[in-house]
Amino acid sequence: MSLVLLKINAGKTKELVVDFRRRNNPPPAPVNILGMDVDMVESYKYLGVHLNNNLDWTHNRDALVKKGNSRLFLLRELRSFGVQGPLLRTSYDSVVGSAIFYLSILCLTAL
Question: Is the whole model's pTM more than 0.85, yes or no?
Fold first, then answer.
């Protein structure tokens, strides 16, 4: 048996509770690691995916729309500076498209 020397940073650890029961149950007791209570959160960003305690896609969708709009603004600014044709298309593919289409397949299949 090997010994894994893993140290958990309780200050960075978050707890996300997913509970689909219909009754209003009391919140679970706080998790305690090394004498520190772990923060309980309603949503958390993990590997670019926004997860929430209802496991729906609203928070993730809103974050993607916000990021896409800011990148589209950048594209409009490039066009106002006179950038045209293939360079504008390359800018779209690398900057805007990657932000908009990230996880789009996963989000569409979850509908």
Answer: no
